[in-house]
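Data card: per-record layout.
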Amino acid sequence: MEPGSSCIKDVEFVTSVYSLKELPAELPVEIAFAGRSNVGKSSLLNAIFGRRKYVKVSSRPGFTQSLNFFLINRQAYFVDLPGYGYAKAPRKVIQKWQKLIEGYLEERSTLKGVVCIFDIRRGVDELDMGLINYLQSIKVTPWVVFNKADKLSSNKIRANLERARLLLLPELSLPPFVVSAKTKKGVSQFLEQVICPLLEELNS
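The structure for this 204-residue chain is written out next.
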């Protein structure tokens, strides 16, 4: 199947990393994807790739326990981070994830930013804002994407987005995007404004 955008020509799964020692060599552009365990991160990646089941969607929140590297156009990495906020995971496992994620985010010099995926139905809470604040504290750009727009009416989306903007606007370089991984609504706009310019720089 065709990838999700004309700027994404080729997608290849490379490796799952469980330790910082296993990290592959850096590429000129790396973009990470973060979100709660049940926010639809895998589904959104599939929508971006234009491939229905390329990234495994699990019925068990917290299933992703590694950094999953996808090679884009043979030039860049998309990195699927373990989900956060899943209280049923053992404490030692959560601590291991945190060490792995923070080590990656703080050490990768070619990391251009993190796509922070939130659920438009629940807006933004302290845990989500903690992610935004942490990324900014280590000088990593956060891009906010609200997923699951197909679950709400247009009026409810506007109301929830307005409340979120009051918290997020002072913190973000770009306004939040509203998308639906299920219907693909808003995905192209996000790609065109955030992802494609970074990929196209590699060919300029």
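Known properties of this structure: Residues 58-62 have pLDDT under 50 and may be disordered. The longest helix spans residues 91-107.

See the next section for split statistics.
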